[in-house]
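Sequence only, no structure available. Ideas?
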Amino acid sequence: MTVPFLPESAPFTPAQRAYLNGFFAGLLNVDPAVADASAPSSGGGTALAEPPEDLIDEDDMPWHDPALMLDDRMALAEDKPAEFKFMAAMAQLDCGACGYLCRTYSKAIAEGKEADLNRCVPGGGETAKKLKQLVKENPVELSVGGEPVESDTPTEIRYDRDNPFPAPILAIKKLTREGSAKDVRFVALDLTGSGITYDVGDALGVFPDNETELVDRILDAMKVTGNEPVAIGPRKLVPLREALTSWRAITQADEELANLFADAAEDKAEAQALRELAADETRLARFDLFDLVQQFKSAKVRPSELVATLPTLQPRLYSISSSQAACPNEVHLTVGVVRYELDGRPRRGVASTFFAERVNLGDTARIFIQKAHAFAPPADLNTPMIMVGPGTGIAPFRAFCQQRLHDGAAGDNWLLFGDQRRATDYLYEHELEQWRQSGLITRLDLAFSRDQDEKIYVQHRMLEAGAEMWQWLDRGAHFYICGDANRMAKDVDDALKQIVAEHGGKSADEAAAYVAKLVEDGRYQRDVY
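Reply:
I predicted one. Tokens follow.
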């Protein structure tokens, strides 16, 4: 028998090649020693007991399940290499906000190629704190790159996370009506001349500026002008005001920042209070930079140390609400504006109020495209789709519908949308009703939770239509969710399994396996946050 082996020229590492050669030998029931002898001496051929780390599939990484709490994820990764411990600290499967995939971000940290531990937006302070702890426990030697090589050859400008495009703002329109408890905005940005392309399902990264009024209050409380030069990179100095406005996160204090203020406090009582605050994660979560500056006046923190300690201001990712086929030079967003009061002070979402309050038409926003990972309409235009997108979760499904209309897709489209009240919160009502009348949307189910005494949500509409939903799934429909990961997505997932069990005649375990197979086959896709 000829034993197959991978030659040294194959595009695999030696460990990968050895593992695959051993796998082929096992598959053919050949002694690994025979396989090893059959392979060229330079190529190896013994089977490995475990696949090399870079061949481990994401499905074999239970420590990276976003449904688990941080402590549970860390417990599962306890005996794993540092790279996987870093990965366990990250809160979501490949959202892309960090500019990496979770796997490549954790690998970059482990290899010393990435020093910024604050990039995980979904994980926020919890992930950053855990990563800093893990780096202390697993010291990382930072790699030092060489100087960039300059070239006289002109190259086409490529806009990405490291070089965002300054997109002019074409439109900002309120989608919620008077009387709504929410404020949701439609935002249109101009891509003319950028060369930027995107697919439906992709996200738009936005680098917002912090609130000018908040920056001013911080500078006044620090008794500085804001013109003090500070470093925001190895070779880049900017005025302190610019650093606090465009480069550093100022709306959430962390342990490192509180300890910096404690070290700088001239009053012993304030220093002690700051150290106690740094150790109390629950209390600290209620503080931002202004709170620290205002309440601990004896802490004379130098601007350079402050900027070196503050986390980098991270981009916010928004599901794109448009198809480029329908809007060639534009990209659309559906932005829920975040406003609330905490400890007597109004607080505002950095990116959402950037659009709602701090920019005008014609101003620019720094943007980039974050490619989707397995979140897209079916390639087969005849395949049915079921889309569940309450609230701002409608965003990508507006884009899906635009794309299906442009492509002349024959597949049926079922949309489930919900919010608080139909009169005030029916986002994109005109378009959705028009698409229902034209037949583009085959079925439209609405769930407005506050329009009756008993709250009704999208998962309730699913269960009401369970028999038909099972028929759609049985004939190959793809199922999509977009929205809140913590509550809505879990409730929808539970409802889906209940429908499969009840109307598909399956046990609970069989229904769970059926849904898992939908995921494996790419027929169940989620864009959750």
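Confidence is low (pLDDT under 50) at residues 25-51, 144-154.
Hope that gets you unstuck.
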